[in-house]
Write the C-alpha cells for this entry.
Amino acid sequence: MLLAENLLEELKTIIPQERIKEKDRKSDPLGNSGKITVLPVTEEEISAVLAYANEQGKKIVIEGGGTKRGFGGVEEEGDILLSMAEFKGVVEHTAGDMTLTVKAGTTFNELQDFLLDYEQQISLDPPLREQATIGGIVSANESGPKRLGYGSSRDAVIGLRMIYPDGTIIRAGGKVVKNVAGYDMNKLFIGAMGTLGVITEVTVKLRPIAKYESLILLSFEEQDLEKIRAFSKELLDSSIEPVVCELLNPSLSKKLIGEEQYTLAVSFEDVESSVHYQEEFVKKMKPDGAKLKLLSGMDAQDFWRIFSAIAPNGNEEESFEEAAVKIGAVNLTIVDIIKESRQLSSSFSVSAEAHGGLGHGISSVYLKGESKELLKAITHLRKTAESLGGYAIVKHLPLALRKEIEVWGKKPAYFFLLEGIKKKIDPKRTLNPKRYVGGL
Amino acid sequence: MAVKGIKTKDKHIHGLAKLVGGQRAILYHKEDLVAYDCDGFTIHKHLPRAVVFPKNTEEVAKCVKYCATHNLPFLARGAGTGLSGGAVPLHNEVIISLVRMKNLISVDLENRRAVVEPGFVNLKLTNSIADRGYYYAPDPSSQYCCTIGGNVAENAGGAHCLKYGVTTNHILGLEVVLPDGEIIELGQNGIPDAPGYDLLGLMTGSEGTLGIVTKITVRILKNPEAKKTVLAYFDNVTDGSQAVSDIISAGIVPAALEMMDKTAIEGVEAAAFPVGHPKDIAAVLLIEVDGIAVGIDEQITQILDVCTARNVREVRAAKNEEERARWWANRKTGFGAMGAISPDYLVQDGVIPRSRLPEVLERIEQISEETGLRIANIFHAGDGNLHPLVLFDARIPGQTEKAIEAGSACLQACADVGGTITGEHGVGIEKREEMRFVFKDEEIIAQTNIREVFNPGNLLNAGKLFPTPGRCGEVKKEMKEALLAQ
C-alpha cells in the first residue's frame, strides 16, 4: 500500500491531480489493469509519465477504450495504467488530400462520424468500433470482413506519432500517401500491442464513402459446405468486385439473421448501377438450394453495425467467460476452419460463433463456456489451424486462463530479431510487459 | 586453394567462386566490373570488388556467410534500375547479383498468390498470369526490366498505386538471408498478420540494408472487368491541378491519375513514343478508371464534366485499347525521353499533399529560374508524387553540381509543405542528407537502431539511406554512449 501511495504522490508532481485515479475495483479478471490510472490530455504529460516510469522501473499498461483488456499479458496489473481515453480529437483533416490525423484515444465511431460530413471514411471495419480507439485498433492491427476490399490497419495508416519509453517523441511515416523515406517504421508499431511505444497520433488515408452498398446473404444446408467452397472460388475468379466474401458458421448466422445455416456474406460498394449489376451476377450464380437474402443501403449498414459488436468486449462482465481466437490460414481453407468451429460444440462444452474471409485468410472464433473447456477448444482450434499451415492467436481470454496457454502460440524462429528490437526501444521493459509474442 | 580458370591473387575471389560453382558465376576483372559501378543513379560511380551470381538461396547464404566471416562489405543487386544509388558499391563491396534467381516458383490463382525468386522481372509476372485474367498490381515505369526483389527493397510504386497501393501492400511473404547468413522466413505460406513485429513490412523498402530477399510471395489481383482512360489538355497548370483535386473530391478513386507539364511533353513528343500532344499546352492529364463496366461510364462522364469546368482545352476518352496503350507507353517512357531534349537529366521523387500542388509547382519553376536549368515535371498527381526532371549537361563544368542542388531544392519545397523526399525511388545515396528535411536526429537514430538489430556489423550495403557520419546523429549517439561509459 505504501508503494502505491508513494507512486501516487510522485505522479501528482508530473500530472495534474484530477487526471490521476486510484484503483476502485477489487479484482480484474481480465488483468492488464494498474494500481493507479492516469488520464493524460497532452503529449507532454504522456511523455513525462513514461520518462518517470522508465527511470523508476515502474511498469506501464496502456489502454484505449478498454475493449482489449483480455488480449495478451499475464499480469493482473502494472504500476500505472495509462489510459488514452481522454487524449482524443481530430488534429488535422484536409478533405482535398484525403488524409486525417487524430489523437490516439479517439474512438473509431467518433472518427467515422466526423468524416461523414465530408462523405469520406477510413476504409477499415474493426470490431467493437463504438468503444475501440484508433490507437488500440492500430496497436492490434485490427481488420474485419471488409478486409477483402479495404485492407487492414497496416494498409490504412500512413503516419504515427509515438512516444518511446524514455519519453522521446518519434514520428514515423508522414502525411502523404506515398512515402519511402527511411525504413517503414509505421509497420513496426502497427500490431505491436503497445510494447514499443505509446501511439499518440495516427494519420490515415481516407476513401470516399461508396455511393451505394448492398449485402447478399446466402445460406446453405449443412451438407453443402463443398458447394460454398466451389461457389466462392467461382465468385472470386469472376470479374465482380466484392468487398466482403465472409463465411459465417450456423450459430453466428442464427444470431445475426435467424438462419441456423452456413451463410456466406457477399457485399458490394460502388456506384448504384455497378452494385445492382453485381447483385444480379450473384443471383444468377446462386447454387440450387441456397437461400438468398438481399440487404441494401441502411439495412446493410445496420447489419455491419451489429456485426461489429459480436466480439467479446473487455468492458463487459459477460466477457469474463468468453474467448476470442484469431486464425490466419490460406484463403480457401477458411471453409475448413469454419466447419471445425461448428463441430467444437459437439466435442467440448462450449458455444462457438465464427466467421472467416475466403478472400483474405483471417477468421475469428468466439467461444463461451467453462474455463477448462475453453482451453481445450482453443488448443483444438490451434491444432487445426497449424495442420492447415496457419496460426491461431487468442485475442480475448480471462487472465487466469491466459496463464495456462500461449496466447501468441510458439515463438517464431526469428524471435531473436523481435527481442533485439524490443531491447533497443524498451530495454527496461517498461511498456505493456509480457503482453506480446514470447513474453515481449 | 585456387579455383580453376580464375586469374587473380585475391584469395577472396577464389573463396567466393568456390561457393557459386566456379569461374562462370563470378566477375572480378576491372573491365567486367565497370558495368556494376552504378545503378540508375549515375552520378556516383565506384567499382565493386567482385560480382557473384548465386543460383539459389543456399548459395546466397554461403556468400553472405563468407563475407561476414572475412569482414568483406557486400550488397545485393537486381536489375540495377534503381534511381537513388542503392546498389552502388561505396566500399568496394562484393555484389551479390540475384539475376540468376529468376524463376516463377508457383502460382496459386485460387488463393491469389504467387511465389517468385528475387530476380524475376516485374512485368513477367503479369504476363505469366494475364491469360487467366490476373495481374500483379505494382507497376513501376521500369517494370519491363526491373526485378521484384528490387521492388521489395525499394518498396516500389508505379502509376497505378493510387487505387491499389505500393509494393508493401502486395507482399505476403519473404525468405530472407540475414547479414550473418542465417535464412529466415517471414509470412509463412503467404498468410497475413503472422504474430510478432511486422518484419515483413519493415523489410519491404529497407533498401537492401537489413537482409537479402531470396524468395517472395506476392498477392495477385483479378483483372478489372473494364478500364477506361481519359486524356485532358490544359492551358495552365493550376487548372490541371485543380481538376485533379476535383476528380478526387467527386468521390472517384481513379486507378491512375498522371500529369506532365510543358517541358515533359516536349521530351516525350521528341522521343520514341510520340502521340501527338500539342506543343503549346501547359499540362496533360492521363486519367484511368477501372472496375465494373456499367459503373465506369458514369465516372467518365463526371471526369469530363470536372475537366470542362476547369477550362480544359480538349478532353477525350481513348477510342480503343491500342490508343490507351500508346498513351501509356508515352507516359511510362517519360524519364528516358528527356534524353531527346537534354544530354543529361536528374530525376527527383518528392511527395506533397495533393492540395499543395499549384504552389509547389510554382516553387519548382522558381528553382528552375534560379539555377538556370530547365525542369520538366512528370508526376503521379493523384497521390501527390512529383518527379521533377532537372535537365543539364554534365560536360559543362559545374552543371552537375547545380543540377544536384536544384533537385535538392525541389525536395526541400516538398518537405516545406508537409510532404516527403521520396515516394518510390528510395533514399539510396542520393537523398541521404535530405533525410534531415523530414526527420529529426532522434528519428534517424531510431531507424539506425533497428538496422543494428539486423545488420550489427553494417557490412551489408553500408552508407545508404541515412545521413553520412560526421554530421549525423549516429555519431552524436556514439559520443553520448562513450561519455556515459566513462
